[in-house]
């Protein structure tokens, strides 16, 4: 199976400008393609994961990836998928975030001479003269068409700033610039980027009289149609300091039963033939599939050693087997104690199981807190330092826990 057919079989392809031409480009290894990453945080997330694995798949098939760091476009902010304007970041914050992205991308993509490239659109966008830009590309964009774009339509009721209105022009200019400088002939992006991507292909056609292509990746959503990659309202990060390898593993281990086969297809590198056989498994083996999914993805992001530790810890906690030494732990600090004792609410907050004491109080009062498998229902419960000497297991709910030491 060639790469384009494999992408289709895995359910990764959403929309294409010209399927036949794109198929020929990528199957013959003739695509120089780019995916853009705006630097809105200091880590990539699980939401970026599919784009990174797509770049890896296409590079392994002989195509040349360009990872475009959005140092320039981040200063405007993409309105796609947003109900409000993004937070304005400083140039220093954006540069810092870009450096963090680079380190994480190198785990997936092979950069180097005649291999993958990494470029930053700040290098050309920040030097543009506004009047010159308007004269060069302004006539190529129809305001009527722009306002019909899905990324703008959903914002019109609450208000779309002129700042964000320019985002499509900036993204289109990126493709136009890289088409000329790097022979970039193909852009990939999330399905919510389709309008912006078509803007780039149209700009290239109108200014240069040449064809460029775009393809969107199916957005990773659960069976309820919600974007995957968040837990308890927070992003699942690729940075181990923001989302530990264990928590990353647990996120994928706990995906809904209806989403497991889709996630294995779209995100792992397990051969498609093996996946099709797994889909025939008896439903009683669903947890085995979930373990495979979690282990494969944690290995890709954090390495096999960390994936094995996470799996051992999960089995120790939930299945009565595995190595308890790998269970996530946290040490209480001296300031957590008052007169030699610490109350249960502070334990929950210091362990990172609750964000605030108020949240911890509710968890205790609702009966969702266990200490060494004993339910704690009194918020006034306290513990002395020596109680934590050998480490105690604190659980909130069925899936949140920490080994707490002192």
TrEMBL record:
Residues that hold ATP according to the record: 230
Intervals of motif 'KMSKS' region: 227-231
EC nos: 6.1.1.1
GO CC, alphabetical: cytosol
Record has Amino-acid biosynthesis as a keyword: no
Motif 'HIGH' region location, chain numbering: 39-48
Subcellular localization(s) per the UniProt record: Cytoplasm
GO MF annotations in UniProt: ATP binding; RNA binding; tyrosine-tRNA ligase activity
Keywords: Aminoacyl-tRNA synthetase, ATP-binding, Cytoplasm, Ligase, Nucleotide-binding, Protein biosynthesis, RNA-binding
Pfam families the UniProt entry points to: SYY_C-terminal, tRNA-synt_1b
Self-association and partners: Homodimer.
PANTHER family attached to this UniProt entry: TYROSINE--TRNA LIGASE, MITOCHONDRIAL, TYROSYL-TRNA SYNTHETASE
HAMAP family, per database record: Tyr_tRNA_synth_type1
UniProt-recorded name of the protein: Tyrosine--tRNA ligase
Lineage: Bacteria, Bacillati, Bacillota, Clostridia, Lachnospirales
Gene: tyrS
